[in-house]
Design goal:
Helix content is 79%, strand content 0%. By secondary structure, the protein is mainly α. The protein has 2 domains: 2-86, Uncharacterised protein YqeY/AIM41, N-terminal domain (Hypothetical Protein Yqey, Chain: A, domain1), CATH 1.10.1510.10; 95-144. α1 packs antiparallel against α2. The protein is globular.
């Protein structure tokens, strides 16, 4: 399970004295634990991946804010944290693979062109292997054609 992989990696980083990685992964483990308490069951790998993606999104938003505030030191820290988290996410789909999936969804819909529904269907197919904003921009482009 992904949660166990993260815990094992924390132990390895502790031995290697990598403080930033340990700090980030301990935070992730605590977020997983809070989610498990809230759901009153252990999270599946899919749910853990979803949680990791939310953390990546938070860091991207923080980077944008820190850039606006001219805080390059904090931007560097957030990018380093993102790199640690991304090690546990599945390999992202290439743009070509993503376009193929979007085309498949469009071919099954026929005349109905509801952007939200299309994005939802595509996101269900990619299961965490693509960023939602990238999917949304591809669907938007396809709708305008």
């Amino acid at each position: 399970m992904l949660k166990n992989d993260i815990q094992n990696t924390v132990n390895n980083y502790l031995k290697a004295r990598k403080t930033l990685e340990v700090k980030v992964l301990r935070f992730i483990l605590s977020e997983i634990k809070y989610a498990e308490i809230e759901k009153q069951k252990e999270l599946t790998d899919t749910e853990v991946i979803s949680l990791l993606q939310k953390e990546i999104k938070k860091r991207r938003e923080a980077i944008e804010m820190f850039k606006k505030g001219n805080r390059s030191d904090l931007v560097t820290d957030e990018k380093a944290q993102m790199a640690v988290i991304m090690k546990f996410l599945p390999k992202a789909l290439s743009k070509e693979e993503l376009e193929k999936i979007v085309d498949e969804v469009f071919s099954t819909l026929g005349e109905e062109k509801n952007m939200g529904k299309i994005i939802g269907l595509v996101m269900a197919k990619v299961k965490g292997k693509a960023d939602g904003s990238v999917v949304a921009s591809l669907v938007r482009q396809k709708l305008q054609e």
